[in-house]
Design brief:
This protein has about 230 residues and is mainly alpha-helical. The chain has one domain (about 5-205). Helix content is about 65%, strand content about 5%. It has helices at about 5-15, 20-25, 30-40, 65, 70-85, 90-110, 130-155, 160-180, 185-210, 220-225, and strands at about 45-50, 55-60, 115, 125. The strands form two sheets. Strands 1-2 form a two-stranded antiparallel ribbon. α1 packs antiparallel against α2 and α1 packs parallel to α7. The N and C termini lie far apart (about 35 Å).
Length: about 230
């Protein structure tokens, strides 16, 4: 799953707007941000098998980012980080943590069995990647529903809707490009490319909100402090 992860970020922004959009956008891919760095160092391992249907990724070893205990720890760390570093309200911090953990749940649907239930333990995955058409339909469907929810929320609080539409179009374009591009040449190239995309999308999310009077993205300042 790729752009489907961003559905959690957009839905969370509409449900709890006091966290900046970029924290949700980076948060929904935080496990993969860590994975990108670790595969470049060889701490976690992957390879490419172009004969596989759907995703060509063979995720051989990634206990520090995609095991269930690791995902829980990353989620807790993200929530605590935005609480203490950014002084966000507790509810907003909880939402950031939930968005981080949503990555593991979404991966459970699409990954082949490569997600450890505990460190070194049983690997699980429902393997929707093996059915590319339903998998892509799920990703785009989740993004469309969450995007509509987010855009509708922006309209209700008096924010312009067109930045939301452009961001959604960008996500779909990136997904299409990822589908059409040949597989990356190796772990280092894959890690660099993935990390660049995740950070770039986080930067776009920051730009969408840049200049707002408060992180509530259109709410009165008094509501932002609630």
């Amino acid at each position: 799953m790729f752009v489907g992860h961003y559905s959690a970020a957009l839905a969370a922004k509409a449900a709890e707007p006091r966290a900046p959009l970029w924290t949700y956008v980076i948060g929904c891919q935080l496990l993969d941000v860590g994975w990108s760095a670790l595969v470049m160092t060889g701490t976690e391992r992957m390879s490419i098998d172009p004969s596989l249907p759907g995703s060509s990724l063979v995720l051989e070893h990634m206990p520090w980012t995609h095991s269930l205990p690791a995902a829980l720890l990353w989620s807790l760390a993200a929530g605590l980080a935005v609480r203490f570093a950014m002084k966000l309200p507790v509810r907003a911090c909880v939402f950031v943590g939930l968005v981080v953990f949503s990555h593991w749940l979404a991966d459970l649907l699409v990954h082949r069995p490569d997600l450890e239930l505990w460190f070194g333990g049983t690997k699980v995955g429902l393997a929707l990647w093996n059915y590319p058409v339903p998998e892509q339909a799920l990703e785009i469907g989740l993004l469309a529903v969450a995007g509509a929810f987010w855009a509708g929320w922006r309209a209700r609080v008096g924010r312009r809707v067109w930045p939301a539409a452009l961001f959604l179009a960008l996500l779909v374009a990136v997904q299409i490009i990822a589908m059409l591009m040949p597989p990356a040449g190796g772990a280092t190239q894959m890690g660099i490319m993935a990390l660049a995309i995740y950070l770039a999308l986080g930067g776009v999310a920051w730009f969408i909100e840049h200049g707002s009077a408060d992180v509530a993205d259109g709410l009165p300042a008094s509501a932002a402090r609630a």
